Amino acid sequence: MKHWYSRPVCYVRDTPASLAFFVEKLGFSLDWNHEEDGRVFISLDDAQAKALKSDIESWSVPVRETHWGMPVIEILDLDNNELFFSPPG
Fold first, then answer.
1. Confidence class for position 42, pLDDT limits 50, 70, 90
2. Mean pLDDT, to the nearest integer, of 42-54?
3. CA–CA gap between residue 2 and residue 79 (Å, rounded)
4. How far is CA 67 from CA 37, 72, 84, 85, in A?
5. If you ran DSSP here, which 8-state letter would residue 74 be given?
6. Is residue 54 within a helix (H) or strand (E), and if so which, with residue range?
7. Which of 18, 37, 43, 80 satisfies CB 3.0 to 4.6 Å to 12 for a cystine?
8. pTM across the whole model
9. Residue 26's closest CA among 66, 73, 89, 67?
């Protein structure tokens, strides 16, 4: 079985502010960047998803636990893009 990962496309008003949110608030690292009319591309691998679960409680970012076919943690970015993370099992 192949290992798939997500690469969401987020439409943003302020690219520098959005990048700061993902890097400084959510702890992402920027491996590469492509800007086109306010898009930010983000990829998560398994290690990043596991780190999210351990770090999320210490952040001052509002989260909501919900269910979307599986338990998920929902985070809204600065432009109200919905980010759904399935907690590692």
1. low
2. 68
3. 32
4. 32, 6, 10, 11
5. E
6. helix 46-55
7. 18
8. 0.55
9. 73
